[in-house]
Amino acid sequence: MNRLLASLLCVFIAMAIQAKNTACANISLTDGTVMENVELELPRVWTNEVKYAIDGKKEKLKSEQVDYMIIWHKDTPDNKSCLRYLQCGDFDRKTGEYKPNKKKKEWFMLESAGEHLALWIMFWQAKVKADKIELKLGDGPSFPGTAYYFQKKGDSVAYKIAFDPARPGMVRDWLKAFLSDDPELVERITDKGYFNRRKALRHGNDYNPFFFEDIAVDYNPKK
After folding, report:
1. What is the pLDDT tens value at each position of the chain, 223 positions in all?
2. Under 8 Å CB-to-CB from 217, ≥6 apart: which residues?
3. 159 with 151: CB under 8 angstroms?
């Protein structure tokens, strides 16, 4: 009986370790402090609080205190992701009005960045898998799907891209308006550049025929 109990205990311990949903992280704070290689807790739903542990001691921060975080799976340290807590906003392509939403801040993953523009993807959950960290994209379990945002250099707000894969013309019009200060780029978007339905599933099950990641790199309003 003792051997059986010991065996069961080992199984339960192994399951508990495997179920531990944590990642390695470097956390950079808004006051300039940098905490390296901490154990970051990946909560069921990401909110305005960050929990982590240093040398086994548990700590927590308000998300507002975090400038950005670099996270990685302990078994794949070369595969890093940059996360940031950003204010959200909308851009009205018809009026050219920028509309920051002071009541809405969410966690994002950096997908691509050029000198003048960054592409962020909103997520609401992160889970540790065998050799990677899987992000649940979108605005929560009630609003699944990818949420793409552009953040221009010098702006603290990330603006939601009017994205609808079934209406490429609408998306293209929004991009042309938002990026109108780079006429050369806008011309390529008009000519159906940065769009390819055959490669729409290049990021797994996330359907996106628009190459927002390339637009972020190519955008240059100073040309």
Report:
1. 444 333 333 333 333 334 578 999 999 999 999 999 999 999 988 988 999 999 889 999 999 999 999 999 999 999 999 999 999 999 999 999 999 999 999 999 999 999 999 999 999 888 999 888 988 888 776 666 678 999 999 999 999 999 888 899 999 999 999 999 999 999 999 888 899 988 888 776 778 899 999 999 999 998 6
2. 112, 113, 114, 117
3. yes
Residue length of the chain:
223
Find tokens 């209406």 and name the residue: 167
